Amino acid sequence: MRELTYFVAVSLDGFIAAPDDTFDAFPMQGAHIDWLIEEWPDTLPGFVLDAVGAKADNAHFDAVLMGWGTYAAGFPQGVTDPYPHLQSFVVTHHPEREVPGDTGELTITDEDPVALVRRLKQEEGSGIWLCGGGQLASSLVDEIDRLVIKVNPVLLGDGKRIFAQRPYAPQGFELTATRSFDTGVVANSYVRR
Predict the structure, then answer these.
(1) pLDDT (tens digit, 9 = 90+) per residue, 84-96?
(2) Which domains are assigned to the chain?
(3) This prediction's pTM
């Protein structure tokens, strides 16, 4: 059965994006980016893969889920199908929203995210990547099998939380790997206990 992995960058104070859904305060150069290109190319947008001459191998993921805010963050750069190498789903309460361009094979849906993930887990494939945002992650918290958290050495003070407001309900995860980079970024991997 496929697993759902929440693979996301976060600030020291628990934010995955600024209040306007941007994340340009996070370091975008250095050894942690080389690590992404070499070990996690599935998580890079198609235009980034093209720019660095890399290819996604779908070893980790062949499907991606994201909320509208995460998806729409690429619109100012003209990106409407960020991960053409993955089966892509944008989960939103308003699937009728206008997209400023061709979405390729991407699916915009108001399907219950838990039902969607459970269906995808039953299908053949390498893995399912939850790429953001915090509201979607909160609705899927019980379905998350793995976490890969890239902690960035910056405090944002406000923005989009890694998990949106949810009731107090502790869930245990076990640290399986950690890697630090000279940029100050630390990548921690966890599996559900």
Answers:
(1) 999 999 999 999 9
(2) 4-192 (3.40.430.10)
(3) 0.96
